[in-house]
Amino acid sequence: MPNGTHSMGTHPRAGLGRRGALAVALAGASAFAAQWARAQMPDPTGPQPELAKEKLVIVTRDGQHHVFNVEMAISPDQQTIGLMFRREVPADGGMLFDWGAARESDMWMRNTISSLDMLFINADGSIRHIAEHTVPRSLATIASGGPVRATLEVAAGTAERLNIRVGDKVLQRIFGNAGANAG
Asked: What's the pTM?
């Protein structure tokens, strides 16, 4: 072999080195852990009781203030069940998932029978990403596309109807901006 190198054979991790092999092993373990965690989630058969509500305002780039009265999903159990089995979401309602700190947010529509719009919100209250018209009961992952402080679920079509776009501002106490032009 030239330059004293050794053949690594045809092993799938050939040529990765220790760090590369460790990264591959960790990625596999992470995927397994995510699948295992989903399998361990409670299997609710109906909607959770209505959660405590708080005011939330979305300020669009044209200066319009849209006021919502949203349920606050704070605990892991509340967040796991979310809007499952809810037949509809009010036009001025929804659910705000407060992650407590900025992190990746991966959502799905398991047992959710109404299509939703999902707004992924940065720690400063700006909208990072919007997933419109999600597919009811889908197990496909809907990702935030980066770390977010919260995810807001509203009725499907809300983002389009109110002209809500990435970069618009969400005013709510968890972002520390609830008093700022809260409409």
From this structure: 0.75
User: Amino acid identity of 67?
Assistant: V
| Range(s) of the chain covered by CATH 2.60.120.1140 | 53-175
- The alpha-carbon radius of gyration of the chain (Å, integer) is 21
At residue 27, φ and ψ (nearest 5 deg) are -65, -45
> Do 140 and 108 form a contact (C-beta atoms < 8 A)?
yes
The pLDDT value recorded for residue 135 is 97
Q: Which residues contact 84 (CB under 8 A, 6 or more apart)?
A: 44, 47, 48, 110, 111, 112
CATH topology of domain 53-175: Jelly Rolls (2.60.120)
**What are the φ/ψ torsions at residue 39 (nearest 5 degrees)?**
-70, -25
Using left for φ > 0, alpha for ψ between -120 and 50, and beta otherwise, residue 175 falls in: alpha
**From the first residue on, what is the mean pLDDT of each consecutive set of 10 residues in the chain (183 residues)?**
41 52 53 50 74 97 98 94 92 97 96 96 98 96 97 98 98 90 54
The secondary structure of 52-72, three-state, reads: CEEEEEEECCCCCEEEEEEEE
SS3 category, 80: helix
